[in-house]
Amino acid sequence: MALRRPVPPGECRQCWTHAYDPDIHRRLGPREDCPQCVAHMGGDHGGQIVPKKKSIWR
User: Which residues pair with 12 in a beta bridge?
Assistant: First the structure.
């Protein structure tokens, strides 16, 4: 059963889900890379960043 944590503002949905949902990587063997994680590396989050709330100080 997956542990569902809400993605905090400013974080990437895919990165957060892959980091905190053990079911996603359960099928991988020891020392085997997740193809989705490898394709996602490099900083291009493709619009998957959860928007932050506007600051009251601005």
Answer: 49
Q: What is the pTM of this model?
A: 0.69
d(CA 27, CA 58): 46
Beta strands in 1-58 (DSSP E): none
pLDDT digits (tens, 9 = 90+) for 7-51: 999 999 999 989 888 888 999 999 999 998 888 887 778 788 898
**What does the alpha-carbon distance between residue 46 and residue 29 come to, in Å, rounded to a whole number?**
28
Reduced to 3 states, what is the DSSP secondary structure of residue 12? strand
Phi, psi of 18 (to 5 degrees): -70, -25
